[in-house]
């Protein structure tokens, strides 16, 4: 039986998202690969650029989730304390409240700690302003 490596995909051009991903890598012991969508093989993951621009993504074999559902799966994968938090996030009433909160954060990420004005722009606009050859953060 093949071991499926989960992948958590975020927007690497957004400073707020990158700060959150760095926190995950430092503090949350997930087995998932945490990678910006700009460096991920989206076709192999079965994701589109639009999906990745709209929300973080979780892919583990045939299991796919986005936004707070992806975060819940990431936390459940991390074990112990984090698993409790991930399970709580997956409970129906919490999950229903998490989506509007996630959407608000995503829409205002440029105003949050670590955010920049570029965080508020869709990738197509970032490419127009900064060029498609602009260096990207890993």
TrEMBL record:
<dbReference type="Pfam" id="PF04134">
    <property type="entry name" value="DCC1-like"/>
</dbReference>
<protein>
    <submittedName>
        <fullName>Thiol-disulfide oxidoreductase DCC family protein</fullName>
    </submittedName>
</protein>
<dbReference type="InterPro" id="IPR007263">
    <property type="entry name" value="DCC1-like"/>
</dbReference>
